[in-house]
Amino acid sequence: MAERVCVVTGVGPGTGAALVRRFASDGYRVAMLARDAGRLAALAAELPGAAAYPVDVADLDALRTTLACVRAELGAPAVLLHNAVAGGFGTFESVTPEALEQRFRVNVTSLLVLAQELAPAMVAAGWGAIVVTGNTSAWRGKAGFAGFAPTKAAQRILAESLARTLGPQGVHVAYVVVDAVIDVPWTRRAFPDRPDEAFIRPAGIADAVHHLVHQERSAWTFELDLRPFGESW
Prior knowledge:
Layout: E1 5-9, H1 15-25, E2 29-34, H2 37-46, E3 50-54, H3 60-74, E4 79-82, H4 97-125, E5 128-135, H5 149-166, E6 171-178, E7 181-182, H6 185-190, E8 199-200, H7 202-213, E9 223-226
Parallel strand pairs: 1-2, 1-4, 2-3, 4-5, 5-6, 6-9, 7-8
């Protein structure tokens, strides 16, 4: 069997890195996409199965060029994990159109390009998976999320459209709603009084995503919501 290749976008210190570790531990060659070249290089040095591809996914031409490099160097990816995210707080009075459009480009338009570039090979192979990591903003638009929630809602709907197109062709598309505060250093600093059970661990998210990718095709999940046991919902 040829080596399986997985693309992970948005490889930061939390969920992105956890996804890379989980899939690399299962024998995947993992193409890591993110803007921070130093972070990617450090993770590549730690994980022999991971390769660094520094890129800003909002630069669509650069993204296409990077994906061409991934295909040439690692092979056609069978799995895409779109974890890149651009966000920010603000009510509609304070959000600039430019900020909203930039977040839309990272969260939604790049997903479209990724699917256009990678899905055809998955269809040809008869197997593949695209999983998008989202959050509670995909469900509701709170006042302070006017410049972010619209992009996550659109991202979820795009993923659903992809699922309806690609599912019958053998490619599993799923959307993961992370309804919790992710356990990373900056959130611990931001919420110092919250107990451990209020945070969701990146490794737990990665395990759930890995399970989605490898679900038996007669029982595919489209939307999966994750939260720690102590979360109020």
